[in-house]
Write a structure and sequence with these properties.
Layout (H helix, E strand, L loop, with lengths): L1 H11 L25 H6 L8 E4 L11 E14 L5 E13 L4 E10 L8 E8 L2 E6 L2 E5 L2 H7 L3 H5 L1 E14 L2 E6 L6 E2 L3 E19 L4 E16 L6 E12 L14
Antiparallel strand pairs: 1-8, 2-3, 2-13, 3-4, 4-5, 5-6, 6-7, 8-9, 8-10, 9-11, 11-12, 12-13
């Protein structure tokens, strides 16, 4: 249990910070496609009230929906800053939610070279009303501690962050079986809770996409890749330099999943 709690604490450290980190990037953002023609924007304008959106936590509105499932991924590949020593980190999170049943299931893994004291972490957590269960290494325990409940309540916003503001690009599509509009990503609006910066930190070559469903008032897809230099990741003791990749997809909006006591509990 202590490694589960420690790993979740690593993932949640920035979420406890009341001032989420918004990076100031170098001016290398031409690949973001942040402008569309006026004709396209008019023809494919989103519904009223959605010309601009704000999702500082990418999954922040989902509690209002009856049911859903999402997948979130953070991958870092690079080196310790000012060395040639390689370093990598990967955090996966899948979450299922049933509003009426007050049920939530979270499956998380964390693998990192950032701290030698942290082994790979993998767990499944289920909340059914007032009851919480955790499964790790094939063993189940009924958990009542605040730390265990925090593990079950881990969110994509804790790991990936989100977008302070984004403007519609006038592009409409179907993503994950939902009608969505695309929004532009600008460097000074990206929120990265897993990343810490110092005086010599640098961010460049940001590229990605953001698709929002006005009907659900939810982000359906958020992909981001950015090159980072001299930053800390998950409060790592040493700064790192490399490429950070974020991926988030929301599925089955309005469909209530079957969430039950984990096998063996």
């Amino acid at each position: 249990m202590r490694w589960i709690v420690y790993g979740v604490v690593m993932l949640c450290l920035a979420a406890c910070n009341s001032r989420p980190f918004v990076p100031a990037l170098l001016p290398t953002t031409a690949s973001l496609d942040t402008e569309a023609t006026a004709l396209m924007q008019t023809k494919n304008a989103p519904p009223e009230g959605f010309s601009t959106v704000s999702f500082p936590r990418v999954d922040q509105t989902l509690i209002k929906l009856s049911g859903w499932h999402y997948e979130a991924l953070l991958v870092f590949e690079g080196i310790y800053a000012r060395t040639t020593r390689p370093v990598a980190a990967r955090a996966d999170l899948q979450v299922w939610y049933d509003q009426v049943g007050s049920a939530r299931r979270a499956a998380a893994t964390l693998e990192t070279d950032l701290d030698a004291a942290t082994p790979p972490i993998a767990y499944e957590g289920v909340r059914l009303g007032p009851d919480t269960f955790l499964v790790r290494d094939g063993k189940c325990e009924r958990a009542s501690s605040a730390e265990a409940k925090t593990a079950v309540e881990l969110t994509a916003g804790d790991i990936l962050g989100g977008i302070q503001t984004a403007q519609s690009l006038g592009e409409k599509a179907i993503v994950n079986n939902a009608q969505v509009w695309r929004y532009g990503l600008l460097p000074d609006t990206i929120v990265l809770p897993a990343v810490g910066q110092g005086a010599d930190s640098r961010f460049s070559n940001l590229r990605g996409e953001l698709w929002v469903s006005p009907q659900a008032n939810a982000v359906m897809r958020y992909y981001l890749t950015v090159d980072v230099e001299n930053v800390t990741l998950f409060s790592s003791p040493l700064p790192v330099t490399g490429t950070l990749t974020l991926q988030y997809d929301l599925y089955d909006v309005g469909h209530v999943p079957n969430i039950s006591v984990p096998f063996g509990c």
